[in-house]
Write a structure and sequence with these properties.
The relative contact order is 0.16. The protein has 11 helices and 15 strands. Strand 9, helix 6 and strand 10 form a beta-alpha-beta unit. It is α/β, with parallel strands linked by helices and about 325 residues long. The strands form 3 sheets. Strands 3, 4, 5, 6, 7, 14 and 15 form a 7-stranded mixed beta sheet that branches. A 6-stranded parallel beta sheet has the order 10-9-8-11-12-13, sandwiched between helices. Strands 1-2 form a two-stranded antiparallel ribbon.
Length: about 325
């Protein structure tokens, strides 16, 4: 089968930053599905791993990355029960296994959902990773209960990004929160409003902007861009007994003491935790993706696809990474096979 990977961590402009190669089509066993891939999308995690996975070495075998895909089940392992040959599926994958930048992929059915029937292949490919990240942040980490938390305020940092774009929708339409998103350009602000944000504020003057809209403090903060950069201001604007969730990590230690007086909770969110550790609730990702498929099909949620590149080629994968590295993308970029 055809695959695209890399042997060295190189700038995306380098001729060998991605290379096309042939490798054996795998055979599913256990809980695995063999999926013939029809479309993939690219996320910031892709270029971060490309930049770091082979920094000081040259790999013997090219590394295949990619963690969003839509495809058709071609074969199943002996322990599978959720899907059959011919089913259309979508999923975000497992960071410990070969990724979706290939013609075929093995994927544990417990982290796979049925493809939303109302969406095109490209529209569906935009959704899995960002949706799981946003959903887990809101419902698994903060544990929002709409019956109790209705109307509370959530600040979404980087509202127009891939995760922010679906988090706005989930927070507004499913959790019933008052949504404040950050955006600094007219086109990104308009995008956030279109998705359902109640307020859009400029991240460059965050405290002042929040005061202007009458929300100088917020109940929850979802960081999808730069935890270290926002840490001090987040500690100031979070309400007592509030909750901060971050997906971005920090290259330097963070001072948790600044949250102590307010009894503020802090959580990391990593969508790969369930698959990486085969947690007891690993099937929850199957359930989330199927629930979201229904919500997409009934129009409650909508795809965040904005850019489609046609053809599974080295050139298109490089372009998708270049767009992600720019930090200026709106919504999601998909490569259609």
């Amino acid at each position: 089968m055809k695959a695209i990977g890399f042997k060295q961590s190189l700038p995306i402009s380098d001729q060998n930053s991605f290379i096309e190669f042939e490798t054996e089509k795998p055979t599913p066993t256990g809980f695995d599905l063999l999926v013939k891939i029809q479309a993939i999308s690219v996320n910031p995690v892709d270029f971060k791993i490309r930049k770091n996975a082979a920094k000081d070495t040259v790999l013997d075998t090219p590394k295949i990355i990619g963690w969003d895909a839509v495809g058709v089940v071609e074969a199943v392992g002996e322990l599978t029960s959720k899907f059959k040959v011919g089913d259309e599926v979508y999923y975000a994958g497992d960071i410990t296994r070969p990724g979706s930048n290939a013609e075929y992929q093995l994927i544990d059915e417990r982290i796979v959902g049925r493809k939303p029937s109302s969406l095109s292949v490209a529209e569906a490919a935009a959704m899995p990773l960002t949706t799981l990240t946003a959903w887990e942040s809101i419902f698994d980490r903060i544990k929002i209960n709409p019956a109790v938390d209705l109307g509370k305020t959530v600040l979404i940092l980087a509202g127009a990004g891939g995760v922010g774009s679906i988090a706005i929708q989930i927070a507004k339409k499913l959790a019933g929160l008052t949504v404040i998103a950050t955006a600094s350009r007219p086109e990104t602000a308009d995008w956030c409003k279109e998705l359902g944000a109640d307020f859009v504020v400029n991240h460059r003057n965050l405290k002042e902007e929040l005061v202007k809209i009458g929300h100088d403090q917020v109940d929850y903060i979802l960081d999808f861009v730069d935890l270290a950069g926002y840490w001090d201001v987040a500690a100031e604007i979070i309400k007592p007994q509030g909750h901060i969730v971050s997906i971005t990590g920090s290259s330097k230690p963070l001072n948790l003491d600044v949250l102590k007086m307010k009894s503020v909770s802090f959580s990391w969110e990593l969508m790969y935790t369930r698959s990486m550790f085969t947690t007891a609730d690993i099937e929850k990702q199957n359930e989330i993706l199927n629930t979201v498929a229904d919500l997409l099909d009934n129009g409650t949620l909508k795809t965040t696809l904005t850019t489609t590149l046609e053809g599974f080629t080295v050139e298109n994968l490089k372009e998708a990474h270049r767009l992600q590295e720019s930090g200026k993308t709106i919504g999601k970029t998909v490569i259609l096979y």
